[in-house]
Amino acid sequence: MSELPEYVYERIFNAPLSKVWKLWTDPELLSRWYGPGIETVIHRFDLKPGGEWRNEMSWGDKKDLSKMTFQEVVHEAKIVWHHSSVDSDWNVISNPMMPDWPKVLLTTVTFEDAAGKTKVILKQVPIDAEQNEIDCFTNMMSGMDNGWGAGFNIIEEMIAE
Fold first, then answer.
1. Which residues does the chain have with pLDDT short of 70?
2. Is the entire prediction scored with pTM above 0.90?
């Protein structure tokens, strides 16, 4: 099998690392920018290896549930999680809106001080994926900037508040 596709998105925020870290790790603040333009409810957020972030996003009559299981947390430096779609009992399932989407994405977010600003780099890679899931991820990567970019734009607005 060939090398897995990797989605990468990065941004430099005009804010100190501690402030940007808080926007990623305080569930109340996180729910304001994660899932831009829709209602986001965080049901659980246990930021430690093995802890879970249980997330619900709603728009109109549609709903998306996801579970992120934290793999690594390094204060103000890195958060790594496995990201999956789930059913109403929080069991991992295929994405109901996109059945070929990978069941698990390895998401790594790093935070770096950049002369008083903060550089955030987000990477996602499908893991334990079938070829159809890898193909779907590869085909969708070009559009992923829209979602992450919109969320990161809200982070910039929150920093300016």
1. 1-2
2. yes
Q: Contact 92/103 with Cβ under 8 angstroms?
A: yes
pLDDT of residue 2: 56
Q: Select from 3.10.330.20, 3.20.20.80, 3.50.50.60, 3.30.530.20 the CATH code of 7-160.
A: 3.30.530.20
Which tokens belong to 121? 């780099």
Is residue 108 helix, strand or coil? strand
Question: Could you tell me the residue ranges of all domains in the chain?
Answer: 7-160
**pLDDT for position 12:** 97
Which string of DSSP letters, residue by residue, matches 117-142?
A: EEEEEEEEEE-S--HHHHHHHHHHHH
| β-bridge partners, 110 | 78, 121
The answer to whether the beta carbons of residues 159 and 15 sit under 8 Å apart is yes
